[in-house]
Structures are given as C-alpha cells and as structure tokens.
Amino acid sequence: MLDPFxxxxxxxxxxxxxxxDLRCVYCMAExxxxxxxxxxxxxxxxDRLASAFIRLGVRKLRLTGGEPLVRKDVMTLFRSLGxxxxxxxxxxxxVTTNGSQLARFxxxxxxxxxxRINVSLxxxxxxxxxxxxxxGRLEKTLDGIFAAKAAGMxxxxxxxxxxxxxxxxxxxxxxxxxxxxxxxxxxEVMPMGDISQDRLDQYLPLSLVRARLMERWTLADTDYTTxxxxxxxxxxxxxxxxxxxxxxxxxxxxxxxxxxxxxxxMLYMCLGQDDDADLRAVLRxxxxxxTDIEAAIRAAIARKPKGHDFVIDRRRNRPAVGxxxxxxxx
Length: 330
Ligand code: SAM
Ligand code: SF4
Prior knowledge:
Layout: E1 11-15, H1 43-55, E2 60-64, H2 74-86, E3 92-97, H3 102-112, E4 116-120, H4 126-133, H5 138-151, E5 154-161, H6 170-180, E6 183-188, H7 206-213, E7 219-221, E8 231-235, E9 241-245, E10 258-261, E11 266-268, E12 276-278, H8 279-283, H9 290-301, H10 325-328
Parallel strand pairs: 1-2, 1-10, 2-3, 3-4, 4-5, 5-6, 6-9
Antiparallel strand pairs: 7-8, 8-9, 10-11, 11-12
Helix pairs in contact: 1-2, 1-9, 2-3, 3-5
The structure holds S-adenosylmethionine (SAM) and iron/sulfur cluster (SF4).
C-alpha cells in the first residue's frame, strides 16, 4: 500500500480498548468516561480487520490502548494474530503496555509469537510512580517487566519526559536499563485530549534533555530505526540504545509508515489530524466481504495526510486533537 506521498504503509497499530487500570496525568483525566460496549469492535472483528491489513502488506502489528492487557480475553486475539507470524505473513507482533498485567501474561504473549514489547515506565521512584499514574504501583510494573524478560522478550522502556517530575531521573534510568539489557525511549508530551491540566506545565523539550545527558554519557548517533519516529543513539557506557521521540521539536512525518485503528474501528491516517475512516461501518454492513473491507482500507490510505502540526504555546493552549492518546493508541 502506497500513500499519496509515496510512503509504503507496513505498520498498523491497533488500540484494542480505550480503558485502562491507570490514570497517567498526561494521558487521561481521573474521571474518564469510556465508550459503550456496543461501539467497541469484538475480538473477532479486530482480527478480521487486522488480517485484511496484513493481506494488503502490513508487516508489523502493535496492539496498544488504553491498556491492551486489561481487555477481557485479549490473549485469544494475540493467539489468533500469531497465526500470521507462523505463516510468515507478518514479521512482528508486538504490544505497548503499562506492565501491570505482564507478570500474568508474559509467557502467553511469548507463546503467541511476541518477541519484543514496549513497557511505559516514567520513573523508578515509587512515590513519583504513584503520583504520575494516579492508581499504579511501581512494584507491579517492575514485576511485569522482569517476567517479560524471563519469558525471553526484548524490552524497550518508554518514558514521557515531564518537566519538574522525572527530568532528574534520566541518568538513573539509563544506568538501570543498561544493567538489565533494556533499550530506553524518551517521549515528548503531545497535546492530545483534555486532561484537566495545563500542558505547558508538563512540556519538556528533549533537545534540552539530550544536551544534559551528553554531559554525563557518550551518545553516538546511529541510523538504527524500528520504522518509527524515534531517533536512536547508542550509550557508549552501557552499550544500549536510547531513542528520542520529538514530535514537538522535530517533525518526523516524512518517513511515516503507519496507520492507527481504534477499538471502535476508526482508522486514523495520522496521530495528529482528525481525518479518519469508519471501517466499522463497512465491517458491520450485512454481507460485507473481505473485498469490501480491503477496498475501504485502500481508499483511506489514499487520503493519508502529509503530516501533523502539534503546537503547545500560550496562544493555542488547547489540545491539537480532541481525542485522548488512549483512544488512538500511543
Ligand atoms: N497503556 C499502555 C502504556 O501506557 O504503555 C499503552 C497505551 S499508552 C496511550 C501508549 C504510550 O503513550 C505510553 O508510553 C504513554 O506514556 C504515551 N502517552 C500517553 N499520552 C501521551 C501524551 N499526551 N504525550 C506523549 N505520550 C503520551
Ligand atoms: Fe493508561 Fe497507558 Fe494512558 Fe497511562 S499512558 S493512562 S497506562 S493508557
């Protein structure tokens, strides 16, 4: 599948639920209203749509959310999607998780074909972890991370850089990741969804973080890429990679190879734009064939926009897009 700007679409991210067992301050308001069940695609429908994308050339599939591992019976979906790995149609099946349920699911994920996972962890300090996630416990996430490691999965830690919250912790996190063999990826806060708090209070440009890190660590730029927006460097002292995702200070759209499907079957061609395609309507039309679904996907890809224009500033201090990251999947 080629989009109008010649970018080949090979990566699909699927948000399997908008619900979560945590309430991270940059992601959700504490009193979130979630979608009614009838609007959410069933696991069979998610499988049918994802399989159509794979037939059309998607080689990498990531399940995310909300928290993907809190969706009831989600392992059924992992197992059924795993058939595409076994058949060689899919190169990678992966997941982004907050880790809270990983201790329970790590062996099953591995058995389904998951070999790499991203775990979100913004701090190694239990009190800060509780403050950032509102409802979480650091120990539970750490148990999950080590269960995933023991199951044989490669782990990347994702940390959102938050001004005045975890900015003094990145040295410690680099050392900790080095010690345990994890890669680390730092992410700038993006203006998505109303979180009943001021975004400007959270925003910390990674250009600043990187400059500070370079006083202590030797960072060697690499052209390593996972096909995603992160720019990677190797930390010479630990031998591990560190990635920087900088939607605010560096626009990464020119190499974008991905589209995102929400748990309601809306396909977003760009994280930062409101343009979407309703695949649920196609899927739920009586007698819908695989050909109908594939045609709808192709038509949507033909509309993929060139890029986003996230801005956080005083004049425009409101979300660039109204939906939360937990709907589209981070
Ligand atoms: N619940 C899972 C987790 O936390 O990993 C998966 C979904 S979560 C929405 C995916 C990623 O998006 C997490 O790493 C999270 O830190 C990040 N995220 C959420 N809201 C964000 C925002 N406004 N700006 C930047 N990253 C955000
Ligand atoms: Fe939940 Fe992930 Fe959002 Fe945190 S970042 S509230 S864990 S969906």
